[in-house]
Design a protein that fits this description.
4 helices; about 70 residues; mainly alpha; single chain; globular
Length: about 70
């Protein structure tokens, strides 16, 4: 499967967002993230399916922003 630089960058950012959410240590945020964003114990295929789909990618980024904003307030 051909992976372009945008997909590679998205996948990297997605992994970093996942790590960030988990490091916050908030179980409610983790649950929301796993249900609506990145599944618990994601596989490479999970990351790829999010990174390669523009609509899902945008939804996941929006969710990340909302969760981080909610946590900080």
């Amino acid at each position: 499967m051909f992976i372009n630089s945008l997909q590679r960058t998205r996948k990297h950012l997605l992994k970093e967002m996942d790590i960030y959410i988990w490091k916050l240590g908030d179980e409610d945020l983790r649950l929301q993230w796993n249900e609506k964003g990145v599944p618990d114990k994601p596989t490479e295929e999970d990351y790829n399916s999010i990174a390669w789909n523009d609509a899902i990618w945008r939804e996941t980024c929006t969710l990340f922003g909302k969760l981080v904003n909610d946590y900080e307030q």
